[in-house]
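name: query_chain
kind: protein
chains: 1
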Amino acid sequence: MGARPKSWNSGRKMWLLISVIGTFMLAQILIHFFTISSSTMVKKITSVRRSDPTDKPIERTGGQTDKRWLSLHDEYTQLSREAENIDVVFFGDSITLGFYNSPAWELILKKYNALNFGVGGDRTQHLLWRLDHGELDFKQDPRCVVVMIGTNNLDSNSPKEIASGVLQAVERFLARFPKAKVLVVGIPPRSKLPSNPIRLKRDELNQILKEVISKRQQKVLSFIPFPNLLTSDGVFTRDYTIDFVHLNVKANQILVNSLMEAIDKALST
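structure:
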């Protein structure tokens, strides 16, 4: 087979050059398209998550296709309507539900007639909805209410927004149970390191709640700092957490001991 003419080789090189340029341009167009699409999607997701105000009651629908959330709410509502001589009722999210599902809860039951209305994944707006739809309909008012809520808002709301939601819950407790002591517990550490943005938001939230509640100077209302579970340099280790959000058995024991001390003090005054 004879050698190909120079014109053929030149044409082949030109075609390869055009192909490379065309492929590069197509890649740039696709990258630009997907970058815009991804950015738009993130903005839409963020807007959806931020569209729910923290201080307005909102029924929780996402992630509960089997109606577990409503089922648990209905159970709590029924318990409240049947309850008598309740010393303390706990409201909150998975952190509150966590010590109910630990050996530490037995210590509480040995000392108090208590109820636990924790729901995993709840945000402040979800708790407000629950309060407005039956969970405050107690047959007889409890002597003390303990609320710890807001950690699930940290990824999408500012500390001020979350504090507003927590304080709306407080207002409902004070209005519904005027003689009960209301204890607002600071939320637990988030993330391993103190420099993590989520940890910083958590710290700011707890500081806001402490300052606002202290300034109100109401004998029936107190802020209870979350017990210290951090190392001297602020690290949240696996000695106390299973995932840098939820507490392990050891940490639940420390939390419950701290809560019992605060409850005893509240009920004695």
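note: Residues 1-20, 29-49 have pLDDT under 50 and may be disordered.
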